[in-house]
Predict the structure.
Amino acid sequence: MVLSIAACSGSDSGLGGEDNGDENVDTGSGDEGENGDETQTNNSGTHDADTDYTWDASSVVDITLNGTSVQESSDDVNVSDGVITISGAGNYRFSGTLSNGQILVNTDDGEIVRLILNGVDITNSSSAPIYIKSAEKVLIYLCENTSNKLTDGSSYDYDDAEDEEPNATIFSKENLTFAGSGSLTIDANFNDAINTKDGLIIVNGTYTIDAVDDGIRGKDYMLIKKGSFTINAGDDGIKSDNDKDETLGYIEIEDGKFTIEATGDAIKAETDLIITYGEFDITTSGDPNLSSAKGLKAGVAEIIEDGIFALDCTDDAIHSNGTVTINNGEYEISSDDDGIHSDGKLVIEGGIFDITKSYEGVESGEGNLTISGGTLHIKASDDGINLAGGGDGSGYHNDTGSDYSSDTYCVYISGGYIYINATGDGLDANGSVSMTGGTLLIDGPTSSGNSALDYDGSFYISGGTLLAAGSSGMAQATSSSSSQYSVSVTFSSTKSSSTLFNIQTSDGEEIVTYKPSKSYQSVVFSSSSLEKGASYSVYSGGSYSGDETDGLYSGGTYTSGTLYNSFTISSMVTSVGSSNNGNNPGGH
């Protein structure tokens, strides 16, 4: 006999049959991201054990639900007024429909309790359909090709009135694990859909959740190895919120597909949020002035190794009260506040980012901001990249007026491709900037109260390509201490967005041709193609026959417009045009 049939009355992929009668479940474990354990320095382990997923098929106790009655035959099962009480460790398989009933686990045994759901529909109008009151730990297993549903009412009669428990459709006071490839639908009309006061592990399964409050809550921690999740939450979608122990309150996601609509935060970890991979379609709709409504939120460290992310949020899309590290992934971000925000250090090592809407695109509060790779397109109604602009914790337009400016803070750009379209400052560093490689293109502000480049300390450039266009009133160029030459061009009048900007050698060799997306009067350009002692000319207007990407032309021929000025490189920063020396102190 195939043992998976014995366990779930149906063949189940991920189960292996052994002649000794053991039931083996694929735990979904895979190779962790290279930073998985190393970066989770403050987090303790989970309750996960290989033995949780192996059991003797002959030991399974069948419990059949027949509407208002229950059929069972076990000394460890008691049925009274629709409540099925499990008083001993073991393996219990449920099938059928139960109206206004409950599965209650209440045992002092030191072994695991497994609840095997083999196609159940359980409702309870005044309490939790599944209530885990006491156990060593519990595994809820969803049999393959089965649909399971749990529904509660809009009010509860508490078992523990002082602590108001239970208070979720699935409520557990103990460590809880979900496994199996079946599906589970939860209609949570009172509060949370799944709430455990200890740790929560989800190995696999398909989950459809509609909750008036939180979708899934693992208080001490949450580990998601795999699964498909569709969550509509009146508050937070997925959360771990133990704020009493710094080693707890974390979430680790190894893989999975997540569609989350939340009024609060979509995924929220009190301490660390670590994502190895996943596909995320996230929408938050709450009012950030009243409560947090962020997409991905961590209290201490947020580490994203890889994944596919579509984030549409009324608050920060990616946020940490501590640090953010992003190593790879694809990101489509629309935010009414910041696209990516950390109160501390922020590191981007790779990935493709399309921030189509933000207040500030990428912001680091009181810590360095490092970009060493990736492709970033940033559109911001204020600053495109902001350093030390204010570590406000919430990140939502909460400008306290405090001066976070410090020479100890620095934006480091060593690689990658960055395009910024900003209404405020393009790159605003309340500190310094160090650029050693990569490409940075900025379509900056049209208002004279902001500038394409704005820094308090210095802007040292030794490599890469920089082109920053915008208004001239507060314009800054790179610093004279740099080791790569720059030119700062200020026109006598504002140029329209359709007007090309071109620099070429005295022999007519093209150095750069650019068409800003907005009107401009100042352009700062730095590249290894600029050489000391060489002569160049600046042209305005004209046309170009080649390809264009983000306003930068290549692979064609420039037809000269009007010669604006000619210059010779004689110092690290050469100013061309009006009296503006290209090194004004920027606006704040």
Summary: Residues 198-386 form one domain. The CA atoms of residues 532 and 570 lie 6 Å apart. The longest strand covers residues 113-124. The chain has a mean pLDDT of 90.
